[in-house]
Amino acid sequence: MHVARRRTPLVLTALGALTGSLLLQGAVQARTAPEPAAARAGTSWSVDLGAATADRSNTAVAGGRLTVRDLRAHPAAMPAGRSYAEYTAPSSALGRTVGALTVDTSATHPQGSTVETDIRGQDASGVWSQWTTAADGATVAFAAPVGTVQVRLVLTAPAGAPAPAVSAVRLSEAATPLTSRAAPLTSVTYRVFATREGLVGGTTANGHVIANRDHFVALPSRRLLDSNGSTTYQVRVCHGSRCETAPIWDVGPWNTTDDYWNPSGVRQSWGDLPQGTPEAQAAYQSGYNGGHDQFGRSVSNPAGIDLADGTFWDGLGMTDNDWVDVTFDVASAPATKYWVDTFANAPVYASATSTTQTGTLNAGTDYVYCKVWGRMIGTSTSYNHWWLRTDPDVGPAGQYVSAYYLSRWGNDEAKDNNGTVVPDC
Fold first, then answer.
1. For the segment 7-56, what is each residue's pLDDT rounded down to a tens digit?
2. What is the CATH code for 188-332?
3. What is the dihedral sign for C-alpha 341, 342, 348, 349?
4. How far apart are CA 313 and CA 323, in angstroms?
5. Which of 29, 31, 86, 337 allows an S-S link to 57, with CB 3.0 to 4.6 Å?
């Protein structure tokens, strides 16, 4: 997490992706003059299907078309028998705001295969919307005008069968009345049944290879599925007095279109169920959908979330599948960075109370987001109870390092290099 690796501001990264992801046609030359706050309807983009900086899992480009690389590969948590591939184009800053976009995807669909186009936008406050799956020619309206957009393609096919292929994706600005826009996700908490995912060595839906005692969760919908290594979308999971905030890196359990945290008017599937009730829970407890999931399997537990082993054992102290409290909030990832100096390579942990190391923060100038009070690190004369949330050099993002390793401050102090007290998480 050294400054040498991470000094580039995010806004420059987004702007740099403009020529490699969404190539504005006709409006690029006009950008030398100031643009109006509201974007002009009718302007269109083409998505780069072979961007070098794209986030991809099991995809290939053949003859200028995006397709499935290995027809035998599928995420470890998903049912066998179908290949799965995912391509997330780099995010692109538009230089203006748009309220809605029309999505046109050109693709071939051999029998039994699918191509789904997901889209999201980032508003002026830096908050990303949930991913929305858009049918070809459909218009996606955002809860607030967005200045940065991103596209994700998901391709599936029966194992060994001919793969689908995408030849083009075009986005067009659309004028949509405010009343047609879906409400943003707010901070809501639901009690759901949690199972341990395990599957060490397998691959998640976003391409992450599951490590021993890993820290992430799986939800039964792609709407909050994050890119590999990213912590844009997180949930806070509590079991008794133990809590952990973890990124969403996989899809499951049971279903893949069950965004049960959304209200019925927004929920992708099973809109007749109460908000906060997973389809698998309703199937298991009351025989909903004949007691089956979306794939026709008989539901044998009411799980609405899967927990990676490190989250399950180390973060929450669980020993068996159980009910947990899950807080959903798209904006849960901290945004402000506080720069600090550390005097030595420091171990990081999934929480301020965990004793299982998940990675390492190298000595030097690093950034942290916020602080929490936890177990003491140090000696009787030199110590610190504060833990700082950070993205380490080794290991998953969103971990905690003891403020004991700060170079500039004393016992139980947690300040950045300017003397600003790091805020509570």
1. 222 222 232 333 333 322 222 222 222 332 233 445 788 999 999 888 89
2. 2.40.40.10
3. negative
4. 14
5. 86
308 Cβ contact list (under 8 Å, min separation 6): 197, 210, 214, 215, 216, 217, 246, 249
How does pLDDT run across 208-260, given as a tens digit for each residue?
889 888 889 999 999 999 988 787 888 989 999 888 888 899 999 999 999 99
Please, how many CA atoms are within 13 Å of residue 246, restricted to the half-sphere of its CB? 30
d(CA 418, CA 288): 57
Q: Which CATH topology does 10-180 take?
A: Jelly Rolls (2.60.120)
Token pair for residue 398?
């969103």
Cβ proximity of 116 and 205 under 8 Å: no
Structure tokens that stand for 206 in this block: 């976003």
Domain ranges of the chain: 10-180, 188-332, 338-405
Q: pTM for the full model?
A: 0.71
Q: What are the residues facing 355 on neighbouring strands?
A: none
Q: Quote the CA–CA distance of 354 and 180 in Å, as a whole number.
A: 45
